[in-house]
Please model this.
Amino acid sequence: MPQTPHALSALPLPARVSGPAEQRSSHTDQSIAIACTRGREAVVRRFTFLLAQENFTEQQWRVMRILFDFEPIAMTLLCHRTCIHKVSMTRIVKTLEAKDLVERRFQEGNSKAFEIMLTDLGRQKMSRMTPIAEEIYDGIAADFGKEETAQLLALLDKLSRINDTD
Model:
């Protein structure tokens, strides 16, 4: 396994199963959804140790990461940027509030809509975790290839917009 700056964040890969089923091609080999899920799992695997160490779920990490870059942010926009459904987001925000990492307040001029922001403790935690996460991202780019990473990001961005309307 290639070494990353945070080798503890990369778990050993499971052994590949080989045999007749492995040798056959299937529709799933050409499935964009399954390929994206496999790629996502490969990336998330690199963060397992960091998230466990900080007692974060992967979804909580996504929320904290977006907040660190874009706070304060409307709850609806936070759901969109993190690809998390609003019902799940409400649960995640409540959990992070209980840890004193985020707070929510009504949006100015709209007593039904919330905006979410980090607390001082949340900012401190993210200031400490973000450089480690950046090292992990750099390790992924180094292992996958910087050009391939840039191409993949561009293609996934394009794919994410196929249902957008003008």
The chain has one domain: 31-158. Residues 1-5 have pLDDT under 50 and may be disordered.
